[in-house]
Structure prediction request, 445 residues.
Amino acid sequence: MFDNNVVIVKGYLSHLCDLMTLILQKTRIDGSLWVNLGDKYYDKKRITMQKEFLSIDKIEHFISKKEFQNKTLCGIPQNFMIEMRNRGFIIRNNIIWEKDNAFPSPVKNRFTLNFEDLFFIVKNNKPQYWVNEITLQTILKTPKGTQGLYNQDWKWVICEHCLSILEKNEKLIPTFLEHTEFNAKNFTFEILTELLPSFSSEELFPIKFTSLCKNKSCIDGKIKKTVWVGYNYYFEQQLEPLQSQYAKTTYSKNKSKLLKEVNSTYSARKYDAKNYVHGRNKRCIWRINTANSKEKHCASYSEELIKTPIKASIPLYFCTQCGLPRVPIYDYYYNKPLEIYKGVAIKDYSNALAQNPSESKRRILQSMRKIRFLKGYSHCICEKPYYEHGFGFDPFMGIGNTALSLLNLNRMYMGIDLNEEYVKISRKNIKKINTNTKLDLLVLK
Prediction:
């Protein structure tokens, strides 16, 4: 006979995974799923068996014959992630929601839990549609790419392999610029990397650089790059600002004094990170305080937590005829280099099949120079497209925080909840900001 508490934990996971599987199967081809879960400690005294809720036959494959030890973490988020992965879905991120104002814990024999997990799950790992960065068209068929027409399917860009060679050996810059009109005498790699990214494809077309690499696709120091971007699922990159200063601890030569210096993020000289307004790609640890609520709900979360998933994975507009989203397309110009990294890896990363940190750092520093601006929204090729706002669904609506966030971000919503009292509270909160909702909350009986 299995321990009743183990059955409850496994039964909860089984029902939760079944529900999330059903939701993912019903979502759009580019849809995604976000699940927020916290962990619990196993306690024999507090957990009781709920036979009317659990289906024992359905969860036999979950159950281990070994009983959980008392006071251990149940591992609910981790087991949920593993089971969803085993069902064929793709776990794109495990976000850590850190709560600085977490409720104090009276325990003295372990650390206080002040975080929960937020999983980002999708169902496709192959492109479902393609967007042209020049014409802003969205299509469902695979485009021609570099085999198509110039300035419609592909464009010219500087060969990255040639640039990496120049970075390691600046003496080759005159050779690289030999057949161009540039005066290479005063050129450094810093000037070169500041100048070249600013050229458009039309400006690069007549310029003939000297190819330095052995890449077959490199022609006159340039390569063809497709302007079609494939989307496995809808996702808009979210950015966070750079920290202007980092506190770095260093030791003096005699190691007798501890010197604290304020250095820049990537180099020893100081810089103003405010010049790089778009910052970096958002990290996976989100520090968001819990929100106070006067409503009768013990697990309401902050609207700030859900804003980033909404903006990242729910399109602002989509076509009701073909179902394709309107993807925001950004163009870029480049700031002055944050730092010209001249370090060379001393280890043989290529033979070890490992990522070269020097190459990674160079690409990161170059991407940090990009300043983006909205070029426009993609459009489908329907004869009479009709666009509506994106749509979000919450199967555990509670008091309606998800719906409020969706409405504030100009998206539509639908939610369900077992508790009729919570539904009434949700409707009351939603009417304060929106009196004519097309989709309303439902009560499951």
